[in-house]
Structure formats: C-alpha cells, structure tokens
Description:
Layout: H1 5-9, E1 17-20, E2 32-35, E3 49-53, H2 62-74, E4 79-83, H3 93-102, E5 106-109, H4 115-127, H5 129-145, H6 153-165, E6 168-172, E7 178-182, H7 187-196, E8 203-206, E9 209-218, E10 221-230, H8 240-276, H9 279-282, H10 287-291, E11 301-307, H11 310-313, H12 317-320, H13 322-336, E12 340-345, E13 348-354, H14 360-369, E14 375-378, H15 388-405, E15 412-414, H16 420-427, H17 430-441, H18 448-459, H19 464-471, H20 475-489, H21 496-515
Parallel strand pairs: 2-3, 3-4, 4-5, 14-15
Antiparallel strand pairs: 1-5, 6-7, 6-10, 8-9, 9-10, 11-13, 11-14, 12-13
Helix pairs in contact: 2-3, 4-5, 5-6, 5-8, 6-8, 13-14, 15-21, 17-21, 18-19, 18-20, 19-20
Amino acid sequence: MRLTLADVVSEEEFGLLLRSGSPGALARPVEGAETVEADRPVELSARGYIVLTTGVRLRGNPELQRKLVIEAEARGMAAIGFGVGLVFRSTPRALLDEARRRDFPVFEVPFEVPFRDIIGYINRSHLSADFYSLKRSVAFQNSLLGALEESRPEEALMARLATIVGGAAILYRPGGGVVAEAGEAPAAAIAAEMARRDGPPNVFDVRGWRVVASPILVEGELRFWLAMASRTELATDGITRPLVQVAERLLRLIELARDVGVMEERVRRAELLSDLLDPRRARDVSSERLELFGFTAGAGWRVALLGVDPEAARNGPRATGLEDLARVVGNAASGSGHPHLIGQQGPNVALVLQGDDLPVEGWVKGALAEGLEVRGAVGRSVSRPELLAESRGDALLALDFLARMGAPAGRVLCFEEFELIDALLCAADPGQLRVRADLVLGPLRDHPQLLETLLTYLDTDLNVNVAAARLHVHPNSLRYRLIRVEEELGRPVRSLATLVDLYLALRAEARFSSDT
C-alpha cells in the first residue's frame, strides 16, 4: 500500500491545514519530503516528493511565489508544505491563487511543527509496512469519527471519505435519492447502475469511475446505500473494506441517534398533549413549554379528533391503524407549518392545533389515500389552552354524531357546522346537564331491557314494527314494553315534551360516555 498525500495531511499530530487541492489531488502518492529554501526549491527535489519551505526567498516577490507552484506541478511534485509563523504569517496569496487555479495541493505547517518530524513520518511509513498500515488505519478512523461532531454528520462523513479515497463518496436512500455527496462522480449514473444490477452492486465501473457500493442496515432495515468512487483501482485497495465497515458503523450510530431524538420528541409532544387535554393539569402548563413547539399566546386553540370504527378499536391500536394514522397525519401537519401536537387518545388520534384555516380535511383525505378509514371532528376555538377540554368535548360529540349517522369515511365535522341541539349541549354546564339527564333516565336505570326498547323505538323514528324487528320481538311485545316504559317514567312516550327530554338526555349520556 502506498502512502498518499491524504495520509500525510490527515495525520493528527501535525495539525496540517490544507489550503488548496481537491479530493482527487489528495490521492497523489508521496515518495518523500525535503526542506528546500532556494530561490527555486523544486529544482532540488524529486518527483513525488513534498517540498517543505518557509518561503525565505519568496518574500515580497509574487512572481516567484507563482512560479513555485507552476514548476512544482511541471516536475510532478506531490505538494508544497508551507511553514508559517517564521517568514509569513500565512501562505502567500499569489502562491495560493496559482495553486487553486491548477488544483495543486498546498498545506500549511504550524510554526511549532518541525519539518524533520514530517520527513521522519514519511520515511518511517515507507520503511515499515506494518507501521504505515497501522498509522493509516488509525488516521482514517479518527478522521471519520470527527464527522459525528459536525451539525450535518452525513455530509461531513461523505466529504472525509471522498478525501481518503481520492474521489467521491455518495450516500443514497434505498430508492436512489441522494442524502449527501462529495466529489464529482456521476451520482445519477451510479444510482441507475445500482438499480439495474440484479444482485448486490459491490464493485462496478461507471463512466470511467470504479465504484464500490455497500448497503447500510439499521436494526435490520435497509436505510442507505453507500457508494465510493475513484478513478483508480479502488476495489483492490486494502483500505476500502475497513473504510466501508467504519462508515457503516458511523451511519448506524447517526441514524439510531436520530431515531432516538425523533422518539423523544414524540414522547414530549404526547405528554404535553395529555396535559393540555386535562383541565386540572392544563392550568400548570408554562408558556415556555408551549413555545418549544411553536405555540404562541392569544391565537385560537382547537382540538381535532380523528375517529375509527369502534368495533375495530376493541382489537387494539394495530387493528384500527392508529399508529399509521398518527404517522401520516403527523407528517402532513408538520409540513403545513401549523403549530400542533398529536397523539393517541383511546380509540382516536387527537391533535391540539392553533391558528385559522386549519387543513384538517386535507389531512383526513391524505389518510384515506393511504388506505386508512377515518372520520374527523374539530371542536370550538378557545382563547386559552386551559379551555381545550371544552373543544375536545365538542369533537367527541361530533364524532359520536358522525358514527350514529353512518357518515362515510373522510367526513370532517367542525363545531361551526353543529346542529342546534349539539351546540346547546356543548354550551350547557356539564354538571347540571348530568343531573338533568339522570332525572329523566333514572327510572329506567334498573330496567336495561326497557331502556334498550326505548332507545330502539326512538332510533327507528317511533316505528313499532321496525323497532320490533330490530329487537327480534313481536310488535305486541314491543307495545307492552312501551307501556311499561311509560309507567316507569310517569309520562307518555309519544308526548313531544317527553320525546324532547328523552332525546336530549340520551345525547347528553352519549357525550358523558365519550368523555370517559
């Protein structure tokens, strides 16, 4: 294995600063290094060598500075190492401009690093293959590990891999989308070739580039494809396999850390959602906690509920698709820019929202497109978060109404569309409403058969024959039961006043059962 310029520049003990040179230029082999301070130092150096100079003879002479780069390139030098802090504070501008124009490598050597240490490192690397392999492996791993400290670790990792292989590194999603890339390799053509091949891509050529590709699995799931490309025989280089292994581990760590972060975010949102929907805890929620999720004071607050089939709900969240529903709607809500919280609440998915023109209907249609049967309801707008329980009560009542009416999947009912009776029930004091409902229905509490008969009779629009058929009894038996109901209530069931009281009491009962 040959020592490359990338190996020298990435050696941590020197702290060298690369000022010029692309990843491809850093793939140059290094045969040695010499310290030269002549007017034209490259005349005293050999091909493949690094010229180390402090520029004693170059001060105040931009023309000589440019010629140094021109002649170094013409003689096949590996690079220029410019010592700073003695004659120049930093690499001369004319020298750097010429080097960057020609993509010729130039690196700065800190004042405290003796040139002899760099020369000794290069010589030892050539004298001992084992020493070289160890140093190279450690340097590569340290360089790649440093990507974890960057704000965009995938991009930093690809940049470091591209430098090491002297070419390009590309990270793809399984479908071929590019997550991050560095270098000038044809990313689209590489992705197309990966998709075209029947088996694992492994090693192949694309437009003069030798590509090594590897799948990246996280928790057994394919998350990425990593492709490293070079103009050289990358696949036969002994560093390729270790590089892929280290990169795989780092990408797994990055993804797992991101998964943990997403999960923690969901937990925090679910906890805040639960607190806001409990009137006792909502009063203690701080404004700072709300601001973390984009909520502000003063704007209208609402609760939206996405309901599922009550029969399916008895079989658990997976049967109802609640997890998928929360994911699909959560993604849509995040993309809308509206502050929101989302979480599972019993057989429903609940959202706390803020703002006007909320696109809940669009989110429900998106869930339908994903094959999720769901209805939606939106409660009243309230001025303070501690009043959200009232908005939730509205939404529960609306979901109950949609279910009883057999509304099709995809229907969304907002508070502003409520029937008059629903609005009256929502506006009534819950305590007083419960007392009045108990007074009306109390006489039938101990007679479940009579209560069922009354409910069916009212639900069939007072049609004795239809109600009897639904209850699987003779119409005369139903009439007898209705006489018993009247006896218990002490009032005729066909009276308009009695019917209104019974209807209101039963609707109130439905609201109370939904709240629990």
